[in-house]
Prior knowledge:
Number of strands: 18
Strand content: over 45%
CATH superfamily of the largest domain: Immunoglobulins
Distance between the termini: 74 Å
CATH class of the largest domain: Mainly Beta
Radius of gyration: 23 Å
Structural class: mainly beta
Low-confidence stretches: none
Oligomer: single chain
Shape: elongated
Amino acid sequence: VLENQDLQDSIKPRKVEFHSLNFNTTLHWQPGWAREARGALYFVQYKVYGQSMWQNKDDCWGTPSHVCDLTHETSDIQEPYYGRVRATLAGVYSNWSLSCRFTPWRETMVGPPMVTVVHSNKSITVKLQAPHSPYKRKRGSKITMTNYYDLLYQIFIINNLLDEQHRVLVYEGKDKVIKIQDLRPGVSYCIVAKTYVPMLDRTSAYSSRQCTVL
C-alpha cells in the first residue's frame, strides 16, 4: 500500500494552468516528478466556478498528452472556470491537480493584428486586420476580437539603415488603414504592429515584420 501511495504522489500532475490566445484556450500540465511518470495517461475535467459537478473532457480522457483544448468548453467568456487533471500508471491513480480560477475575458491574451504594407515612392500605407476569435457568426464567418474589446493599434516603423532593434511608434489609434508619409526613397523599412486593450491595460506581442524598399 505504501508503494502505491508513493507512486500516487509521484505521478500526480504539476503546474495545471490555462493558456489562452484570442479565446483559443488550452489546459497545460507537467508530469509528476517520478521518472516513470513519463508513461502516465491523463484525465481532464472542467467546471464553471460555483457548480458542484465536474464535467469529463472526452477527448482528453486517458490521453498521453500534456495539453487539452478547452476552447469550446470555455466559450462563455465572462464565466470563471476551473480545470483539473489526474494521472494513472500501472493501475494506480493519482489525486486530482487543480488549476487556478480562469476567466477567459479577463485572461485571454489578444494577439497582434495582421499587417499588410503597400508602398509608393515616399510613403507606406499600412492595412491592419484585427485577430479572430474561434467563435463564428450564424453565417459562418469568424468573429473578430473587436467584438469583445475596444482595441487600439500601435504601429512601429524600423528604418533598417539605422538599427534593426530601433522601433519608432508612428501611430496609435483605431484606424485600420494608416499612411506613413515623408519617408526616404531607396531605404528599406519594416513595419510591426501591436494590439492594445486599454480596459485591461494589456499589449499583444509584435506582429510579424512586413518589409518594403521605397
